[in-house]
Each structure stands twice: as structure tokens, then as C-alpha cells.
Amino acid sequence: MIEPLTGKRYVHIRRKRRKKEFVLYMQKLESFYPKAEIITVVLDNLNTHNSSHFTKPLMLKRLQD
Length: 65
Known about the structure:
The longest helix has 14 residues, at 19-32. The protein has helices spanning 19-32, 51-64; strands at 2-3, 8-9. Helices cover 43% and strands 6% of the residues. Strand 1 (2-3) and strand 2 form a beta hairpin.
């Protein structure tokens, strides 16, 4: 993750790039901005970078909180 305006970078390397890893990364990203109502994420075309992969798990997590 790169935050251009502040110059912050967060690197997270995994052995695999499955849906599960992507969802976990998005949850980690969400934890960096606890007060944010909206987080804008720009993604490339990697097959795991699909909103259908993480929308449901994140919604389920919020319902459990």
C-alpha cells in the first residue's frame, strides 16, 4: 500500500495470493484508518483483486463486532 500524500508505505508479502490473503490485507488496511467512513483503494487487474471476494467477509466481520 502506498499513501502518496504522506509518503507512507506498507509492504505485506505472502507466499500465496488467494482470496483469503486479499481479505486479510483489506482488513489490516481498514485497521490503519479506524475513524474513516470510506477508504478509497485503487487496484490492478490481478484475479484476486475483485470486490466480490472481500465485500461479503468484511460485511460479516462488521456484523460480528
